[in-house]
Structures are given as C-alpha cells and as structure tokens.
Specification:
Blueprint: H1 9-18, H2 22-35, H3 40-52, H4 56-69, H5 74-86, H6 90-99, H7 106-120, H8 123-131, H9 138-150, H10 154-168, H11 172-184, H12 188-205, H13 227-232, H14 234-247, H15 277-283, H16 295-304, H17 310-321, H18 329-340, H19 344-353, H20 355-361, H21 364-376, H22 380-411, H23 414-444, H24 448-457, H25 459-462, H26 466-478, H27 482-493, H28 505-517, H29 521-542, H30 552-566, H31 570-580, H32 585-588, H33 591-609, H34 617-633, H35 652-668
Helix pairs in contact: 1-2, 2-3, 3-4, 4-5, 5-6, 5-7, 6-7, 7-8, 8-9, 9-10, 10-11, 11-12, 11-14, 12-14, 14-15, 16-17, 17-18, 18-19, 21-22, 21-23, 22-23, 23-24, 24-26, 26-27, 27-28, 28-29, 28-30, 30-31, 30-33, 31-33, 31-34, 33-35, 34-35
C-alpha cells in the first residue's frame, strides 16, 4: 500500500524511476490503471517501465491500450509493434506495421519491418529493406552491419561497424559489434581492446557497476536491469570476454561463439584445464535478481558449471530451452551434455520429442553426429559407417581449406586469410568429436590396438590437438607401451611451466606411472614435487584445501598405488592409498578419489577371498579405520551428479560401510 499525498504522485513516480525502482512504479501505477484505465500518462509510463524490465508482453498490452486511446499517435503504434516483436510475436508486429504504414515516414516503416525480419532470422529480406533507406543514417548502417554479422560476412560487417563508429563517435553498442566481429575473425587482440574500451568507459562513468560486489546475505548488492546498465553494454562485454578467454584456453571447458554460446562436444576419455578466467569475467557482471538475469548469462553460467556440476548445468539449460527466447546454442549444448554424461536414452527422447526444433536449430553436421551416437546404442555397425562418412567429409574440406590458406598467404590478403583460418578451425572442431566418437567404440571393447590405428588415421589433422595427444597417450598406456605414452603426455605437460593445476590429475598420474615403469623414478618424483608445490600454493592463496583443484596429488598417488596392486604388490599399493589421503580424509575425499580408492580395496578383497595374497593384520585394520573415516566424510557425498539424494545407497557412506564390513569379516570373521 502506497501512502503518497495528492499532488506528489508525479514526483514519487519520477523519483522512483531515477532510483531504478521500476517494480515500485509498476506496482503503484497498476493500481492507478484500475481506476483510470484510459490515462495516457499512466499507460505510457507503465509501458516504459515494463520495457526497462524487458517485460515486453506487459509493455505491449500498455501500448495497445494507448493506440486505442490515441489512434493517431504513430509513436504508440511503433512502440506496440516493437514490443510485440521482442515478445516473440513477429507476425502480429508486422501486421501492425502494415496497418499504420501511412501514418509514419517510409524510412521509419522500413526500419521497423527490417527489425522484425531480423528478429525472425529473415536476414535477406531485412538487408533488402535497409538498402532502401538513407545510408547517411548511422542507425541504418549499424543495422546493416548486424545483418552482415548474422550472415557471417565478418569482413564486410567490420567495415560497416567502423563506418558507424566514424559517424557517431564512441557508442558502446557499436563497439560491441566491432568486438564480436573481431572475435569471429579470431582477432583476439583487437577484440580484447574493444571490450576493454567498453568496460573501462562504463565503469568510469558508472563506478557503482565496478566489482567486487558485496555478496553478504543481509546487504547483498543487487542491480536492476536499468536502461543505464543496458546501454552500457557491460553485460554483453563481460559475456564475450568470458567466451574469448575460454576459446584461448583459460576456461573449464571447450567453448566458442560469441557470448559463450558454444557447442560442447563430448571428448573421449579425458580433457584438461581448470583456469577460472572466464568465471571471473562472468562474476564481474553487476549482480541482479535471478528473474532479471538475461538468458545469455544464464546459459553461460550453466556451461561453466558443466564440468563440476553437470546435473545442475543440465537442469539450467533445460529451463532455458523452455523459454520463448534463448541462445540458439543452448539446444546443442543441452543434448551434448546428455551425451557426455552417457544419458543416451534421455538424449534420444529429448530429440524425438523436439524433432522440429532440433532439426531447425542444430547445425546439420551436429545433428548427424548426434544421430550417429544414438544409433550406436542399438546398431553400432551403422553408427560406425555414419561416423566414417562425417570424418571423410571433414577431411576433404580441411584439405581444400589448407590449399586455400596457402593461396591467401601468397596473396598477402590478411582478411581473406583470417576468414579461411576461421573456417578451418570450425571444420577441425567438427572433425575431432567425429573421430573420437568412432574411436571410443573400440575403446569400450578394450581393443586398444584398433584405437591406436584409428587415432593414427587422424594424425594429419589432429596431431597438434591436445585432446588427440592425451588420448593417444592413454591408448599407448593401456597397451603398456610406457616409453611412447610418456612422449605424448610430455607434449602436454612440459609446455605447462606455471600452473600444474591446469592439467588433469589422471594425465599426470599416468605420466608418473610411465616414468616408474621405465626406471625414470627421478622424473616421476619431480612431477610429484611440482604438483605438491602447486597444491600448497593454491591452499595458501585461496584456502581451498579439499576442493577438486587440490586433489591432484591424491589422485596421482592413488593411480600409482593401483599400478602396484595390479602387479600383486597389495601391501605397497594399499600403503600408498592410505598416505594419499593424509593429513585428512575429509579434505581429500571426493567422487574421483573415492572411485580410485574403492577399486584398490575391492581388488584387495578379491585377492584375499581367492587366497592369492596375504596381508598383515595391521594393514587390514588400517583399511578399516580409513573406511570408517570415509563413512563419516561421505555422508553427504553423492556417488554421482545423477544419484537420487533420497536413496541412502546413493552416498559414498553406503559403499564405505559395506567395504568396512567386508574387511571386518576378513579380520574378525564377522562384521
């Protein structure tokens, strides 16, 4: 209930707008609209506030009412059409524009129609409409640049954005267009320059948007989607900066495309990287209430969570695709996460239930790849053939692009060369998952010799790709060719001279084992020392002991212990297990470390049951004590992201309890 004195209504409304309290104004004016539904002042301010909140459906209702109150006012009709278009009703918006075409000047009508066509994705018709307008109007030139960008004509788009900038001076929207174009052209230095210009100017003019922000529960700092924030282009700039950092290898997963809209392909076996530069960029966005966060930012945050919390990421992406508007890459990322987490049935059902949307929104080659992965579950031979067709197609494209690249280099055409290189990278990003998806079919059957052959077939194009090197190393490791495996691992590890935490712990563990098996113990100890130093630095600097970033050394020791157990030396292997969790089981226990630990313990129980090994009672008691500690530490630790939290058997506690009972039976003859 608002207590505003008569005569103070106008001051109250405009003071609230100035303070960014649009919700307050809306609530106040909705009450006034009930008693004065035909008030132009009430409806126009109400509509403006809805637009500021990006609630275009409600805004459209206000402007529709205004067209009834004053049907000769073209501005109302224009705003009504724009809101309908942004609310997801482009057809209705176009009808409105055609109805009032005689009321406005031809250029304004053409701009309106072009905007609606652009919203529909009809870039050709949009381009034709813009060409009819005066080319001296910066709004026209900027829209033309946007159309060219959508058509992937990045060189021409860059020229148009530059033309607009020359006409208007610094405009954050135009500069963002230049940054996005530079990003797509792989000119990351120029992209970073544009983004820094946007961010530095915005924070200089509006220091309240500068991080860090107060995140306390009582005085949590929250900003509304004010016109000032929207016009600053800070949100877009930080999103694109995060995308660029990911593309350059500073993120937690492979991502490309503007605003982190990316196709997350399932890599086979193992990927590495753990830097958080992209997360830092997203955290620099001024915090908003959850209902005010735009779809692109929600999407990007979900993608960043995919490595650590895939279930939450899938839930977030599922929510996004249920909205009227969402980043077009969301669908591909959601389906890809289903595949990566081996939820093939769910992925198949989702694609079957959304056939038309998947067919129109997923690029043809990605759709073909997903289809092949689904078919593999029931018809592996057919899937293999489909993967092969994709691989052959991509390899042919890459050879043609490689020849074009040589021609462009001789011509000295920087823009054309960059365009060819961009296309080459794009096709290469398609080839790798096709190769890995086909190859993993042999990996699943433990046919490692054939895996090696398949990987070698892709050597021409993938030999300099980190995932290919890691996977080749894993394959040779499984073939017990430790000398060659170490060479591939070293190609990944040695260039990483600053932060060992960026590398996968399994990769480091396998390298150490390869060194041990080839009598290079000093080099294995050097790896362990570097990892220990890196972990200590992280713990001291950030206080994150026990997080996934500080369990590298534990995993490495567990893998080495597993090696000794596999060779029958359970005494040494189990001692390595127990030492790997020192000084605190609760600090080191997570899903990954538990997986390796229980494998060794189960192997030991199997060997004991078959009387293949004799272990000292003291060692068995140590194992029991360790498992009791795992029970305590694992009470809230789910076995996987997709475990049922309401099922007590879904927790590490349950498995640790069972193993402890089995060891008690070995020692005491009873639980």
């Amino acid at each position: 209930m608002f207590r505003v004195r008569d005569g103070d209504f106008t001051a109250f409304v405009y003071d609230s707008i100035a303070a960014g309290n649009y919700g307050t104004v809306i609530e106040f004016l909705r009450g006034k609209a009930l008693t004065s539904p035909n008030s132009r002042a009430v409806q126009s301010v109400l509509g403006w506030c809805y637009v500021a909140q990006q609630n275009f459906v409600a805004a459209a209702d206000c402007y529709e009412r205004l067209t009834m109150i004053d049907p000769d006012n073209f501005t109302y009709w224009q705003s009504y059409a724009q809101c309908l278009s942004k609310a997801g009703f482009p057809g209705e918006a176009l009808k409105i524009v055609n109805y009032v075409a005689e009321k406005g000047n031809p250029e304004t009508i053409a701009l309106l129609k072009a905007s609606i066509r652009f919203q529909e994705g009809e870039t050709r018709e949009c381009k034709a409409l813009l060409e009819k307008c005066a080319q001296t109007n910066p709004a026209i030139v900027r829209n033309q640049a946007s159309v060219l960008f959508q058509q992937k004509e990045y060189t021409e788009a860059a020229a148009k954005f530059s033309q607009t900038a020359a006409m208007t001076g610094f405009d954050p929207g135009c500069v963002y267009g230049q940054a996005a174009t530079a990003y797509e052209m792989k000119d990351f230095r120029q992209c970073a320059k544009y983004l820094n210009d946007i961010i530095s100017r915005a924070l200089s003019t509006h220091p309240q948007f500068s991080p860090p922000f107060d995140s306390g529960t009582e005085n949590k700092q929250v900003f509304q989607n004010s016109p000032v924030l929207q016009q600053s282009y800070l949100i877009e700039a930080y999103n694109l900066k995060a995308a660029m950092e990911h593309h350059m290898g500073n993120g937690k997963s492979r991502m490309k495309q503007t605003k982190l809209r990316v196709h997350l392909f399932p890599s086979f076996f193992e990927t590495s990287s753990s830097a958080n530069a992209a997360q830092t960029s997203l955290n620099s966005i001024p915090p908003r209430n959850e209902e005010d966060i735009d779809m692109v930012t929600l999407h990007n945050k979900a993608i960043l969570e995919a490595e650590g919390e895939p279930a939450e990421s899938i839930a977030a992406l599922t929510h996004i695709v249920s909205q009227p508007f969402y980043p077009k890459e969301t669908l591909a990322n959601l389906v890809t996460l289903y595949f990566r987490e081996q939820q093939f049935d769910i992925a198949a059902d989702f694609m079957a239930e959304n056939t038309e949307v998947c067919f129109t929104q997923l690029p043809e080659d990605i759709y073909s790849l997903f289809e092949a992965v689904i078919i593999e579950q029931t018809a592996p031979e057919e899937a293999y053939v489909r993967f092969e067709e994709l691989i052959v197609r991509y390899q042919e494209q890459l050879r043609k692009l490689s020849a074009q690249e040589k021609v462009r280099r001789r011509e000295g055409s920087t823009d054309k060369l960059r365009a060819v290189e961009s296309e080459y990278d794009h096709v290469l990003s398609r080839l790798q998952p096709a190769v890995m998806s086909q190859t993993v079919m042999y990996w699943d059957y433990k046919n490692y010799s054939q895996v090696e052959k398949q990987l070698k077939k892709a050597h021409e194009f993938l030999s300099d790709q980190q995932n290919w090197r890691i996977n080749m190393g894993h394959t040779l490791f499984m073939l017990e060719n430790y000398v060659e495996a170490a060479k591939f691992y070293e190609a990944v590890v040695k260039p990483q001279t600053t932060d060992m935490m960026k590398l996968s712990p399994v990769l480091l563990a396998n390298l150490c084992v390869s060194y041990v098996m080839t009598s290079r113990n000093d080099e294995a100890e050097e790896i362990l020392r570097r990892v220990e130093d890196a972990e200590n630095y992280v713990v001291e600097a950030e206080g994150v002991q026990g997080s996934s970033t500080s369990s590298h050394l534990c995993v490495i020791n567990l893998v080495i212990g597993t090696l000794y157990c596999s060779k029958g030396n359970f005494q040494f292997g189990l001692n390595r297990l127990l030492k790997s969790f020192e000084p605190s089981v609760s600090a080191k226990l997570n899903r990954t470390t538990w997986m390796y630990a229980k494998r060794m313990l189960l192997a030991a129980l199997y060997a004991l049951a078959h009387r293949d090994v004799m272990l000292a009672t003291a060692s068995l008691l140590d194992c029991i004590q360790f498992l009791r500690q795992c029970q305590d530490a694992g009470k809230s630790l789910l076995l996987s992201d997709f475990s049922n939290p309401s099922d007590t058997k879904s927790y590490v506690f349950a498995e640790a309890s069972l193993l402890a009972d089995l060891f008690c039976m070995v020692v005491y003859g009873q639980k």
